[in-house]
Amino acid sequence: MAGLFDLSGKVALVTGANTGIGQGIALALAEAGADIAAAGRSAADATVGKVRVLGRKSENFAADLSSVGAVQPLVDSVLGEFGRIDILVNNAGIIRRADAVDFTEEDWDAVMDTNLKTLFFLCQSVGRHMIARGSGKIINIASMLTFQGGIRVPSYTASKSGVGGLTKLLANEWAAKGIQVNAIAPGYIETNNTAALQGDEMRNRQIMERIPAGRWGDPSDLGGAAVFLASSASNYVQGHILAVDGGWLAR
Ligand code: NAP
Asked: Catalytic residue at 156?
């Protein structure tokens, strides 16, 4: 059974791997045997170091994913260094908070560009490589706001709803080509992304009270789902958005 989840010899490209959920997923994939290409605008030195301690290969790839121009150079660099990409984890993302009546075009474009536009073109570029090889795993990081509306985060909600739709579209187009495209929808996880919510006493209490598990998630809580979706254990799972949310959506 363990062989189903074995990622030995696989290469995973993880965006935003320096911290938070990206770091948690990169370490879990490495523990399952994968080599890690860590891409982002900040060097992922701590992640790369921990992956190497596990005995896997890992390198940093500098990429500002706020614009599509970063995509092809990144993919070319990773292929040049590792020779292949078996797993793509589209994790890099940002959030901007303001009331809908005050929300600016800049806050709209910044979030949509990073969370949705670049994500699609990274799927496209890596997808071409995977299609040529006849196999591959793509894991997009969605959100509770792929399913719900949220409040004061209009571009984030639009982007993460879009991630859900794109995940299904790409699964439809590429399932017969040997590629599995799925998403993980994290619940409320303690990272930089949620620091403002954690620091707001009232919102923090409201969130905690609504989570059946009774606690915020830790980035390591996403590891098992990521390894499942990256491994042959999920070879017949397509276009699925897997909530890892301590029961938030069940409430
Ligand atoms: P985080 O700690 O803020 O991490 C976000 C990551 O994305 C960082 O590595 C960040 O790099 C990177 N990034 C942002 N803009 C980038 C850009 N232009 N180019 C390259 N990298 C960029 O937050 P997180 O919670 O781990 O978020 C990871 C993903 O999970 C995001 O897609 C987020 O929307 C999603 N998510 C989070 C939660 C949660 O509760 N935390 C819930 C649902 C979904 P820097 O460190 O350089 O900024």
From this structure: yes
